[in-house]
Amino acid sequence: MAEAHQAVAFQFTVTPEGIDLRLSHNALKEIYLSGIRAWKKKCIRIKNNFASGVYPASPSSWLFVVLTVLGTMYTRIDPSMGMIGKLKDHLPLRRYMSHQGQNLVSALLFATGLWLALIFVMRQILKCLLSYHGWMFEEHGKVSTTTKVWFTLVKIFSGRKPMLYSFQNSLPRLPVPSVNDTLRRFLESVRPLMNDEDFRRTKALAKDFERNLAPRLQWYLKLKSWWATNYVSDWWEQYVYLQGREPIMVNSNYYAMDFLYVTPTTSQAARAGNLVHALLLYRRRLTYEEIPPSTLPGFPIPLCSAQWERMFNTTRLPGEETDFIQHRVDSKHIVVYHKGRYFKVWVYQGGRLLNPCELQVQFQYILDENSSPQPGEKYLAALTAGNRWFDKSFTFIVFANGKVGLNAEHSWADAPIIGHLWEYALATDSFQLGYDDDGNCKGEADTTLLLPQRLQWDIPKECQEVIMYSLKVAQKLAEDVDFYAFPFTKFGKGMIKKCRTSPDAFIQIALQLANFRDKGSFCLTYESSMTRLFREGRTETVRSCTVESSNFVTSMESEKFSVDECLNLFRIAAKNHQHISRLAMTGCGVDRHLFCLYVVSKYLGVNSPFLQEVLSEPWCLSTSQTPIQQIELFDLINHPEYISIGGGFGPVADDGYGVSYIIVGENLINFHISCKVSSPLTDAHRFGKHIIQAMSDILALFNLDARKP
């Protein structure tokens, strides 16, 4: 293989005259440039860590404090109230310094200490400010004076030009709710799902748990919350994701899809070239921390950025009892799978990223290469369930017609993180990089690039048998997925806002109505909510099936209620949904607290019938909204066709639905529905029709046409 020889820095041959050593200058140059790039990245990382470490102050503010202290000293004013003199008396090398030198060193030490103290105070003030969430519970459009003052103080103490991780040390810790509050909210959430006898039984179990076992478990949980950065996240990652023994395909991984109406090019290699380059540009921005920290939509409130750290160079390593996440600081290549074969593609040349047209050449070489898979290679990835490698942080898929998709492993991060990457990649592909008239990547390719290197495998026969068995499991799992994605175009966020209600509450209540019409009963409903207002926060559950939403659904299915009565019940349900959503975001949800109490009980070796029963209940309706986080990257007015259909996930329960939705602009909502073919109770297309009808029926209650002037 000629391309393999080019990568060797030197070759030697033993002859009778001695050793004939031949150096490859090109390879040595690449090694040199690679080292320069690695050291450059290390220096940038050190600089960024220092800048984030002193935030909300800036490194240049140290010079300002030093000059101020020195300036006051020359006016014979001691700003240190004697501390500079004491430092001067205790300098270890003072006898080797002049009097003026001693004064200068002492002043520098005092100024540095003062600067660090000011940083600590500013950070603590900002942390206290960010711990206040009362503003979130105020009525929409009515901002109190307290909230206005609070917003002003947050802006003052948030500093200027933050980098991705600047706010990490200023974010508050996730609070542990009281057991009484959690159990009260839990009982409220299950009331519409139980008859009177079952509810009395559950209430008795909860009361017994609160009196006897809960105080002991809660004490350990409080202890952890004082010591650990986040009392939930590490256990959630470990026990929910890494110790899960089911295939992560369908059951855990989630996906993102391409533009809904547009395919920028039909060339598979060109689309791969542009998008891979866009992904690598994003990785460079991530390395340099040039990505602005996420904030709460519509508010200058920072969110935790910790999940970005493992976006690239990360994989999930399998183990017998638990898996592990491996993250490498850097990687210089990608692996490409095509027709059962694996290729290693270098993405750097001469210390720079390959441009899109150079990547297109690499991918076209793989498409044209007609070698056969080695024994066991074709279905090797079935060991992680599929023909794709499902335990990578994310896998990028390019289809023959130019359409693209993405599959993400769930343990390292949640959907909004990968969604941010995907928005950037799609926008950069179409609006920044673009294609020529023939659909190829723009630019010129370096003809001396190393060609892709075919990976070599030695797979024993026993292992091949295991691979084929895993393939059958994966195929059976994939064939059991019923999937339906559709754009809802009758109305969108703009029309819902005219109803003076939350778009998310509107959709969630519509899902309750659709589910009742689909199955004839209510079910335990999961809506994902983020807790990234807190450091290392991930998600919390909003239990969307409530007494209030059930009352509304019942009224819609009964002829005894008038339109006005139904509308009033809807408003009550929507207001309650907003309230429980805000509770979940501010650390007062139900499920993560109960989950952690259960983990503590297992560590202590005690059994709780209440916790065992609660955590074994299936989520027959699992829902999540995928937010658009970088709307500025897309021109929805002039180019409404450049919108992604979003993404989704598999069903959680055997007889349940998985529903993902993305609100795009003012007039479009995309829905993704999944369920299992094997269940006689579910049908994705049928449920989609129920959603469309429920959305329309709820809007009709407001009679907006009659209210127009």
TrEMBL record:
Residue span(s) of domain Choline/carnitine acyltransferase: 386-691
Principal location class: membrane
Functional pathway: Lipid metabolism; fatty acid beta-oxidation
Membrane-protein topology: Multi-pass membrane protein
Keyword Transmembrane: yes
Location of the Carnitine O-palmitoyltransferase N-terminal domain: 1-47
Catalysed transformations (reactions): 4,8-dimethylnonanoyl-CoA + (R)-carnitine = O-4,8-dimethylnonanoyl-(R)-carnitine + CoA
Coiled-coil segments on the chain, per record: none
GO BP of this protein: carnitine metabolic process; fatty acid beta-oxidation
GO cellular component: membrane; mitochondrion
Active site: 410
Keyword Acyltransferase attached: yes
A Pfam family: Carn_acyltransf
Gene3D superfamilies noted in UniProt: 6.10.250.1760, Chloramphenicol acetyltransferase-like domain, Choline/Carnitine o-acyltransferase, Choline/Carnitine o-acyltransferase, domain 2
MF GO annotations: carnitine O-palmitoyltransferase activity
Subcellular location: Membrane
Organism domain of life: Eukaryota
PANTHER family on file: CARNITINE O-ACYLTRANSFERASE, CARNITINE O-PALMITOYLTRANSFERASE 1, BRAIN ISOFORM
Protein name: Uncharacterized protein
Protein source organism: Chiloscyllium punctatum (Brownbanded bambooshark)
